[in-house]
Amino acid sequence: MNWSEISIHTTAEAVDAVTNILYEAGANGVVIEDPEVLGREWDTTYGEIYHLSPDDFPAEGVIVKAYLPVTSYLGEAVDGIKTQINALLTYGLDIGKATITTTEVHEDDWATAWKKYYKPVNISARITITPIWEEYVPKHADELIIEMDPGMAFGTGTHPTTVLCIQAIEKYITEGDRAYDVGTGTGILSIAAAKLGASHIDAFDLDEVAVRSAQSNIKINKVHDKIHVRQNNLLDDINEPVEMIVANILAEVIVRFTDDVYRLLKQDGTFIASGIIGAREQDVKNALAKSNLEVVETLHMEDWVAIIAKKR
């Protein structure tokens, strides 16, 4: 199906009224491009990063966008929208320029446009991540290739937290180690551990979609004989000790299960924790110390931190 993007340049005062008109015309949602957000202070409590470019916003006024299916009634719908917006003047509303533009968008474009920005990336001494639709030739004999299909936006494997985790796995894993991957997402950390020599990995995620995404990527990389993925809450009801545990999740979650990490690590086992925004580094270190886990290395990339701890 093709869609028409209806873009209306108006004022902040008229946004609510214009939005209502678009909903009445059949839109299921709207996009509001208001330059006011450029100066807004955002809550980053949970490690969110906000990067907004002024180029994505109008120099003045507000742009409201909605999408309607391209049908024989589209022209009539757009004319109706114009009439109703102009009628707002009778209520004393400042509608600004009130210019309306339409652009046809192909549904396939939405589904695939992002792929052109996802290219093979070398993220450690041995590991290169490449999307499944790219042909990639290894640059050296011992290079390990991880092919990824990000699926339902669980990540491409090139975020700093993932890179730090894989670099740590490469440094600390020993041939034949068994591991737990907590909050597996796409399964990329499990795949990396398997390719780097782990004999078996149990990967857990609370999200059923993540579990399916991980299972798909594991099959693509032909390591399904080494990795078992299932739905599970953190390390609840897990009892078999292993040599390595990795977790690329929020600091707020990591501090909740460090006692389980200690319980499930073998002596001198390694815990790799990432997904930690810099401001929460000390909180995680405090929780590790409280659980008798010794921090042996801290890695930084941009505003993100990975912490490697040992059970001594």
Could you explain how this protein is built, in words?
- The strands form 3 sheets. The chain has a 7-stranded mixed beta sheet with strand order 10-9-8-11-12-14-13, with helices on both faces. Strands 2-3-1-4 form a 4-stranded antiparallel beta sheet. The protein has a 3-stranded mixed beta sheet with strand order 5-6-7, covered by helices on one side.
- The longest helix has 14 residues, at about 75-85.
- α4 runs parallel beside α5.
- A hairpin with a 4-residue loop joins β5 (about 120) and β6.
- By secondary structure, the chain is an alpha/beta fold.
- The protein has 2 domains: about 1-115, ACT domain (Alpha-Beta Plaits), CATH 3.30.70.260; about 120-310, 3-Layer(aba) Sandwich (Rossmann fold), CATH 3.40.50.
- The termini are far apart.
- The model is unreliable at about 45-50 (pLDDT under 50).
- It has helices at about 15-25, 75-85, 105-110, 160-170, 190-195, 210-220, 250-255, 260-265, 280-290, and strands at about 1-10, 30-35, 60-70, 100-105, 120, 125-130, 145-150, 180, 200-205, 225-230, 240-250, 265-275, 295-300, 305-310.
- Helix content is about 25%, strand content about 30%.
- It is elongated and about 75 Å long.
Write the layout of secondary structure elements.
Layout: E1 2-10, H1 15-24, E2 30-33, E3 62-69, H2 74-87, E4 99-106, H3 107-112, E5 121-122, E6 127-131, E7 144-148, H4 160-172, E8 178-182, H5 188-195, E9 200-205, H6 208-220, E10 227-231, E11 242-248, H7 251-254, H8 258-264, E12 265-277, H9 281-290, E13 294-301, E14 304-310
Parallel strand pairs: 6-7, 8-9, 8-11, 9-10, 11-12
Antiparallel strand pairs: 1-3, 1-4, 2-3, 5-6, 12-14, 13-14
